[in-house]
Amino acid sequence: MEALFSAAVGELVSRCLSFLISRYLYTLELSKVEILRKLERALLRIAITVEEAGGRLITNKAMLQQLKMLRQEMHKGYYVLDKFRYLDQEEGKVSGRRSCSSLALPSTSNPGKRFPSSATRRHGRKELEVTLDSVQNMVTDMYEFVAFLKNSPPMFCQPYSMYLLFERCMFGRQAEMERTIYFLLQREPPGDFTLGVLPIIGRGKVGKTTLVEHVCDDERVRHHFSQIVFFSGNKFVEEKLATLMDGGIIKHKSKTQNAGRMLVIVELDEDVEEGAWRRLLSASRSCLPSGSKIIVTSRSEKIMNFGTTQALRLNFLTREACWYFFKVLVFGSTYAEDQPKLASIAMAIFEEYYCHNDLLGDFTGSFANSKNIAALLRANASMQHWRRILACVRRNGHQNLLPCSADTNDVRVENGHYYISRISNISQYVQVDRHHRVVRLDDEEAPKITIDEVMYGRLTPKGKFEAVWWRSHLQPHYRYITTCEIHDSKCMDGREKSSRKRKSLS
């Protein structure tokens, strides 16, 4: 009798606990959904303000700084929102495929970096709460910004997403652009013959040249200066030119004289002796018309001493900003949430690629690579095609991750190569040289083959060949050329085995 009573009580307690746990989890899930809805509404308010600000001429430095903070918060918020809205779907599909198929591709990184697992759900909920709190605080703080924004004159412009697609604006650099333009348009006091110099510093492929190209393409700058002249390299500073009036490539020449003012762009490849720069600048000061300005760009910190104003430093965009940029490139003026299945695949592609961005991003930077992948997706808006791209990105990560280990004898590290899977034939890989050269559009010796043609199998050159990896849509339309070679997967497997054998013997 006691045993029966104990069993009944145990069953009752067990059912009560199961009921309470299920109710708690159900309430928790509802709460998470509500957090996502609140976050989406708050982000929409920030997005409206940011888009409105993008269509107005803002010259106030403090407002530009606050606008930059709004954009950063918007990018971060949308990244977190999309991660929980889309990647949960892809997590279930990937888990199902991996559990039921022995042919599933091996994981190339920590899955927790891509998909929120059950072990990290509580941490994910906390991340949602922190993000929502931060976004709501930003909404509260932007009331004064909105009030002052009404006093800024409007500019005629197309929707922001269309500008991105047609390369008419530089994503994520609006504050830097306005600061540069403000420096260029600022008039010197009467009788002041100081030659204004703005140094722009940043790592390779961070966007220094692209920023300058966009600034020079601005109508305000073109109207202000009669000529825009471009110098590249270091030799002209130390050897060739007596002044900045000699030589150079004329990028713009106005029909109206505009008081003869000149804008001189100097792009330095490496360190320059400060004494040589000072001598060139001193000689040029007496030759350049009053009101002329100079922009000098370099990777070196030493050019900070060349400026007459505080140097502008460019950093790579955050992961959240890169996702926002990639999403706009892929979906254009349409809303990603209207196509949730494609959006989930797009974010899985982005997350998979970004895990290895440090490896691949040194080639042309995240902008160029994001544009290339987005172009492949836009070419065919079908789930089958997008999943094929996702599979290729995963295979690329697997093939390029192993050489980053301690095995420094691996041929791929030694020769500076990485590998990308062909979309047309998954049994083949394209070996891509990490080093590249840049040519102008009018260079007749530049190759005509593009990397897209190689990836889709429209062309299968034999042996080593050169291909256009990316072409800039801004004048002078630079093309980035790299050396490629197509290999079969059997050859790749053989290299992996020999690499492992060398590692085991060492």
UniProtKB/TrEMBL annotation:
One Pfam family in the UniProt entry: NB-ARC
Location of region: Disordered: 99-122
Domain NB-ARC: 174-332
Name of this chain's protein: NB-ARC domain-containing protein
GO MF terms, alphabetically ordered: ADP binding
Record field: compositional bias (Polar residues): 99-111
InterPro entries reported for this sequence: NB-ARC, P-loop_NTPase
